[in-house]
């Protein structure tokens, strides 16, 4: 009888160990999925912000072009400060 008890205990131990391992793997898989979703949300947020900054820059150029004298282009108007403008645009767009 002791050998039957020993076999049962080893079998029960295997079931407990297998169950614990399964729970661990499920937990790890869930954490991995959560991290991937967080990265996706971060990328989407960054892309949205970039698009918003680009739209603001386009709007800035449109507004700047409205007060220009006839025959003068935005480029001609901004040529004196071109490098400063491009640097500011790069910073704004990222």
Shape verdict? rod-shaped
**Poorly predicted sequence stretches spanning 5 or more consecutive residues:** none
Distance between the termini: 75 Å
Mean pLDDT equals 87
Written overview of the protein:
It contains 3 helices and no strands. It has helices at residues 2-66, 74-78, 82-93.
What are the salient characteristics of this protein?
single chain, 0% strand, mainly alpha, 94 residues, 3 helices, 87% helix
Short description:
Helices cover 87% and strands 0% of the residues. The protein has 94 residues and is an all-alpha fold.
Q: How is this fold's topology laid out?
A:
Elements: H1 2-66, H2 74-78, H3 82-93
């Amino acid at each position: 009888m002791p050998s039957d008890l020993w076999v049962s205990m080893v079998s029960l131990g295997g079931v407990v160990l297998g169950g614990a391992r399964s729970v661990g793997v499920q937990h790890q898989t869930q954490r991995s999925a959560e991290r991937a979703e967080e990265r996706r949300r971060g990328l989407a947020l960054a892309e949205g912000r970039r698009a918003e900054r680009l739209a603001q820059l386009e709007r800035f150029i449109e507004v700047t072009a409205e007060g220009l004298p006839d025959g003068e282009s935005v480029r001609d108007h901004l040529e004196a400060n071109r490098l400063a403008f491009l640097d500011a645009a790069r910073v704004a767009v990222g």
